[in-house]
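Dear H.,

Thanks for agreeing to be a second pair of eyes. The structure we're designing against is below in token form, covering all 209 positions.
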């Protein structure tokens, strides 16, 4: 998708890409994903494209927190960061309930709840800020370890070579919590060789051409 220019603009349907990271978007979200939201996302993508999370300074992190806190009813950070992470794979971490749990927060810490007013919104933004700062520190302090892990895993999963370091850390955090909660799910599953999906686009050819 990236090679074909899908992430060169923010369209009314771009929120659907959240499903690629299990964001579970709904068709009705197209109403909330309006021009103002798309403009703010496009501006944020322009600001951070090509920049790595571990290299951001504190002012950059504050701006990134504001971007990740962007959203609307039913489409807060757990979904929004899954959209942003596809536009900014080196910069934006996925902030869903598994990452919240790994950080010691409530599972819904990154999601705006329907009740609680400004206090709840400030608490949500503070949780997002703390998480991004902690993830930046983890990337800085574990660069060699992440590199070593990638070199080992890529032998069986070659596509991991294309993943950014921020995404690799996402995967580690997410699977650590998934295993903790659903460990029995994996017990009886036999190992299978890695087989990437065929995502080659099919061109529509006019009849008779």
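And this is the sequence the design step returned. I haven't edited it by hand at all.
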């Amino acid at each position: 998708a990236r090679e074909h220019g899908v992430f060169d603009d923010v369209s009314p349907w771009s929120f659907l890409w959240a499903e690629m990271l299990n964001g579970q978007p709904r068709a009705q979200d197209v109403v909330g994903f309006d021009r103002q939201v798309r403009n703010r996302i496009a501006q944020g993508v322009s600001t951070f494209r090509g920049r790595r999370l571990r290299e951001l300074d504190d002012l950059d992190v504050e701006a990134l927190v504001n971007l990740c806190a962007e959203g609307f009813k039913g489409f807060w950070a757990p979904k929004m960061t899954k959209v942003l992470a596809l536009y900014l794979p080196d910069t934006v971490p996925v902030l869903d309930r598994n990452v919240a749990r790994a950080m010691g927060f409530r599972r819904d810490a990154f999601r705006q709840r329907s009740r609680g007013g400004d206090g709840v919104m400030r608490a949500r933004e503070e949780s997002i800020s703390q998480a991004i700062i902690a993830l930046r520190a983890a990337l800085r302090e574990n660069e060699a370890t992440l590199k070593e892990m990638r070199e080992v895993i890529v032998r069986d999963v070659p596509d991991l070579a294309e993943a950014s370091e921020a995404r690799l850390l996402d995967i580690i955090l997410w699977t650590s919590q998934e295993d903790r909660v659903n460990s029995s799910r994996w017990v009886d599953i036999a190992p299978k060789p890695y087989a990437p999906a065929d995502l080659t686009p099919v061109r529509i050819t006019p009849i008779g051409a």
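Two observations from my side: The two ends are 26 Å apart (CA to CA). The first helix runs from residue 29 to 32.

Warmly,
E.
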